[in-house]
Write a structure and sequence with these properties.
Number of helices: 10
Helix content: 40-55%
Strand order of the largest sheet: 1-2-3-4-7
Strand content: 15-25%
Oligomer: single chain
Radius of gyration: 17 Å
Distance between the termini: 7 Å
Shape: globular
Structural class: alpha/beta
C-alpha cells in the first residue's frame, strides 16, 4: 500500500498505464494509442537498470507483440536539479535494454514544478538534448461529474490532487470521494487518498495527510 503522495501517484500509473498514455495524448507521436498494448515494467526494473539509476516506472507499448515505444515515467512533486543529470541515464539505459524508441515523461500536479521539468536537457556540444514530455495540471482534466468519476476513479483522484485550491477544488474532491466509496477492500487506500484531498489548502498539508494513509 502506498504511504506517500509520490508512491501513490506512481502506483496509479503502474496499475493503469493506459492513463498516462491518454494524458500524454498526441504528443507521443504514435498515432492511435488504442492500437498498442500497454504494460508496466516496474517489477522488472531491477533487470533493466542499476539500483541507483531506476526510474519510477517504465511503460512499454507493443504492437503485434513487438516493442514500439518505451516511456520512462517519473513523478516529480518538487524541483530537483539532480534529475537533469539522472533522467538521461534512465532514458538511455532503458533504450539500450529494450531496443526501441524511448521517451521521458514527467508527471507533476504542480504548475511550477511542471514548468521546471519541461525545460530541455542539454547533453553537450554536438550531442543534442532531451526534451521531457510533461504531464502537468493543465493536462489533467477536471472531473466533477460523479458518473465520470466512478468510471475512472484514479483520474478523479489525479484531478483533485491537481486542484488543491480554486473554484473547482471542492467539486473535484467530492466527486473523487463519492466515486471511491464503493471500491473493494484492495483499493481502500485510494478511497483514503481521495478523502485526503478534501479541504486541503495547499500541497504541504495535502501531502502530510496522504502520508498517513497506512
Amino acid at each position: 500500500m502506498p504511504t506517500s503522495l509520490h508512491d501513490l501517484l506512481v502506483q496509479i500509473f503502474v496499475e493503469t498505464p493506459e492513463l498516462a498514455i491518454d494524458l500524454a495524448g498526441a504528443r507521443l507521436g504514435i498515432g492511435e494509442a488504442t492500437a498498442y498494448e500497454v504494460r508496466p515494467l516496474s517489477g522488472e526494473l531491477g533487470q533493466l537498470l542499476a539500483p541507483q539509476h531506476r526510474a519510477d516506472a517504465v511503460l512499454l507499448l507493443q504492437r503485434d507483440g513487438s516493442p514500439a515505444l518505451a516511456v520512462v515515467l517519473e513523478v516529480q512533486l518538487s524541483r530537483d536539479d539532480e534529475k537533469r543529470y539522472s533522467w538521461p541515464v534512465y532514458l538511455t539505459g532503458v533504450r539500450a535494454r529494450l531496443r526501441c524508441p524511448t521517451l521521458l515523461a514527467v508527471v507533476s500536479p504542480y504548475p511550477e514544478v511542471a514548468k521546471w521539468a519541461s525545460g530541455p536537457i542539454a547533453l553537450g556540444p554536438g550531442v543534442g538534448r532531451i526534451q521531457p514530455l510533461v504531464i502537468g495540471p493543465e493536462r489533467i482534466p477536471p472531473v466533477t461529474d460523479l458518473e465520470q468519476a466512478k468510471a475512472n476513479v484514479r483520474l478523479a483522484f489525479l484531478s483533485a490532487v491537481a486542484r488543491p485550491v480554486g473554484d473547482e477544488a471542492v467539486e473535484v474532491a467530492w466527486a473523487a470521494i463519492r466515486a471511491a466509496q464503493g471500491l473493494g477492500e484492495d483499493l481502500g487506500w485510494l478511497y483514503r487518498a481521495c478523502r485526503a484531498t478534501q479541504g486541503r489548502s495547499g500541497r504541504e498539508s495535502q501531502s502530510e495527510v496522504v502520508l498517513k494513509l497506512s
